[in-house]
Each structure stands twice: as structure tokens, then as C-alpha cells.
Amino acid sequence: MSLEGTVERREGSPAGNGNGPVVKQPAPPARPTYGDRRLRLNPNTDHKPDRYDDVQSEYDSAIFSSLERHLPPSMLDASRDAKVEFMKEILSRYLPEGERNRVQRHKEYRKKLMSAYQPLHKELYSLHPSAFFVPSFHKAINDNTEESFRNFLCEPSPGIYTFPLFQPSFCELLLDEVENFEKWVNTVKFKIMRPNTMNKYGAVLDDFGLEAMLNKLIEEFVSPLAKVFFPEVGGSTLDSHHGFVVEYGKEKDVELGFHVDDAEVTLNVCLGKDFFGGDLFFRGIRCDKHVNTETQPEQEILDYSHVPGQAVLHRGRHRHGARPTTSGHRINMLLWCRSSVFREMKKYQKDFSSWCGECQREKKERQGQSVAATKLAFFKAGGGSNT
Ligand SMILES: [Zn+2]
């Protein structure tokens, strides 16, 4: 047995909230086009980007600062307005109009939720590293070297990193907050959006006020790891995320099919509580083209048992699923970390999948064939004999 059926793409933020009228958006103004001027693959790290906090846009201001380093050199000294226009033009190609309307509707949904929901534990809504994280994790990130990371985490299979992350008291507070949120949702009969297309239970943390805290958590504590371990999938340019909890158990979701995440880098942390089963299974990293190919049994199979407080960090394209949680109640926090730069680059670059296990296997096979062909030609030509 090497592959458990067809891989699904697990999408975030389902479209439409079915709650109140859809706000019709004015048609977007005509935008100047910039021909085929392209972003640079490698960021200009010496360039200090402008601040975009005050720019009115459906995109997070951090995306502009991050993209700016990838602008063509001729654009770097342009006015901030010109840069914004150029970047909006690129981003609008990335988000078609239907998607933009969806983003706008989601913004309004979130505003509505946040103005009505009263947080239970206010201390969760800003990042307190020493209260949230176990000291060894905090220290490894502060030391900020590959060596300090490697001394601290385990890599049970290539590209999968596990490590203790949250203190038990933090897990408890977060579980409590999620429970409080769900109780509130039920009391006021607010129709909430579920975290993605595959989970019917759970909640989007970003939707009820935790977005800023999670942004900081990713920027300061996930990005340093992603930069070192996943640079080839945009790990050094993470600039947005989707943060949510999923719930498994008898009256919740039981298991999760085989899939890849809509993320460049995924952080999956078990928060509790008591449960049996629910193991994660991993089956190799794949590009779009190869997402349904066979698993290589010696290198690509890993089963992992969740431990509360412990995190698993992997590429979004690392195929995985969750086995049934056979008893009890399991809640995990997921952070899907994304890179707009990586997604934009992927469109221009043909060979953009050096990280795919199947692309690597094919390449090796081609190399093997060409070595064999060279050898054969060599022997046919009489090489290798002493006469
Ligand atoms: Zn591939």
C-alpha cells in the first residue's frame, strides 16, 4: 500500500457567508498596465521597502512591503504611488475579480464578528512569548542559527519537523477561548464560516480577533525556521496566513482525507485534550503535476502521533491526512503560512518544483539513463579495453 486514494486540495475560507446581503462592489478603476515588466526572483535584500500601512486596499499592507523587494530595479526608486499601482496590478492578476469580491465580503463578515464578540482571555490577543512558548523553543529561536534549530527539533522524515511549542497553560487558555467563541456563536445564532472545505467543525482564529497575534507569531517565530528549512517554497517571504482550529471526535469530524494544504508552510499544533488515534500520516512532497503519483515506500512514509503542545512543521505540498480519532476529543491549531511572492514567481518559472519528490525521482532517472547511454557509447567505441 503506498497511496491512500486521490489527493484533495484543502482550500481555506469557503466562499460566501450566507449571512446578510452581499455588498455589491463598484467596478474597479482602470489600472495602468506595465507590459511584461516582471518581478525579480531574488529579493533585493539591501533595499529598504516603504511602509504601506495607510494604503487603502483589499490586500494586507505587509504584502506590499514584501513584494517591493522583488520589483524590477528600474522601479525601486519610483514614487510610492507608482509602486503601489504596479504591485496592485500584479496582485490583481493573482486575484481575479470574483476572488476580490469574496475577499471584500469576508472582510465585512470579520468586522461584524469582531464588533460583536467579547473575548474571554484578552491576554491571548497579543503575543507574550514567555507565557506562550516552552523555554527551549523560545531560546532556539532567539539564538537564531540553523544549529540551534537542529539541536532543538526532530526531523523524523525529510522535510517534517516536530518540536515542543506551547506551554500547557497556553493550550488551556486557547481551548477555553475557542469554546467560549463557539458557545457565543450558538447563543446568538451567528452563522460562522468553517476553516476550510474539508472540516465541518472548528473555527477561524483570524475571524474573531487573533489575526494580529498570529501574524506576529509567524513573523517572529515561524519565519526564522521556514527561512532555513523551506527557502525553495517561499519560506523566506511568508507574508500572509490562514489560522484556524479543527476539532475531531465522535460528534465532530472523525478523520481527514489525504490532501495537500493551500499553504507554502504549515504549522500544525495539537492543543489537547484527551484522545486516542488521530495520527497524522505523510506521503511525500508533490508539485501540482505529480500530486497523485505513487509514494516511495522507503523514504516517504511517516506516521506521527499528536502530543498536546507539540508542533509539526512541513511544506503545504507535503501530502498528508489524519486517521480517525477513535475516542475523546482532539483539537489542533493550524497555521497555513503563505507567500504571495512565491505564488507570483511560480507563474513565470517553468522549473519551479525542485522540492517535489517525484520531479527529483524523474531527474535522477534521466541522469541514470544518460550515464548508461554514455557508458554504452564508450564501450561501443572500444573504450575501456587495453588493446
Ligand atoms: Zn513534480
From TrEMBL:
Residues 239-339 form the Fe2OG dioxygenase domain. Keywords: Dioxygenase, Iron, Metal-binding, Oxidoreductase, Vitamin C. Its cofactor is L-ascorbate. It comes from the Eukaryota. This is (wild Malaysian banana) hypothetical protein. Residues 1-12, 34-54 have a biased composition (Basic and acidic residues). The lineage of its organism: Eukaryota, Viridiplantae, Streptophyta, Embryophyta, Tracheophyta. Coiled coil: none annotated. GO terms for molecular function: dioxygenase activity; iron ion binding; L-ascorbic acid binding; oxidoreductase activity, acting on paired donors, with incorporation or reduction of molecular oxygen. Residues 1-54 are annotated as: Disordered.
